[in-house]
Amino acid sequence: MPMQWSPALCRKEKCVKKPISKFTIHGMWASNKTDPQPMVCMKNVTKVRDLYMGMISKPTQTELHTSWPNFQGPDDFFFWQKQWYKHGTCSYSTFNQTQFFDVANDIWKGLQLFDILRAASISPSISRYQQRADFERAIRNHVGVPNLMIELDCPSPSNELLEIRMCRNHAGNAYIDCHHNGTCGLTSFKWKP
């Protein structure tokens, strides 16, 4: 599950909302060994393809505005619809729309990455490079899975942390190794405020 750092996102792309100092959900992406990131799996099944807000409880919708905001557009629903269509439809056999958003939101609530890193004395810096091993240790200690492969995404050429991707099993209830460790440097990268 990719968690995005909006200050980096808004330096990379145009944002209409002010970035916040918290990791937020980018999506919940299905994956498997033969197709590491399947997309748009049920484009011909309107009932599955289209997102119906009535399927998501009002309390969850309220929480999603905080956990899964759309920084690049004024409408959070548009972002949720896009992520459901592109990725959620690929997990429909496991999660219907209600479950998809509930599970993603519950994972986010249990994985407050900014707070986890801050508790390990890791914080964004304009000038200091971050040590990948420190990030991995803090997150692994929190989730209780030693040697878990975590994907850190730093688009080039900036080598600035944009996303932390945590992989879960098919049922979404346990952490598993991601397919690769991402695009951040093997030893260090930038994480700017």
TrEMBL record:
Cellular component GO terms held in the UniProt record: extracellular region
A molecular function GO annotation: ribonuclease T2 activity
UniProt KW Transmembrane helix keyword: no
Domain of life: Eukaryota
Keywords carried by this UniProt record: Endonuclease, Hydrolase, Lyase, Nuclease
Protein name: Uncharacterized protein
Keyword Nuclease: yes
The family this protein is said to belong to: Belongs to the RNase T2 family.
PANTHER family xrefs: RIBONUCLEASE 3, RIBONUCLEASE T2
One GO term (biological process): RNA catabolic process
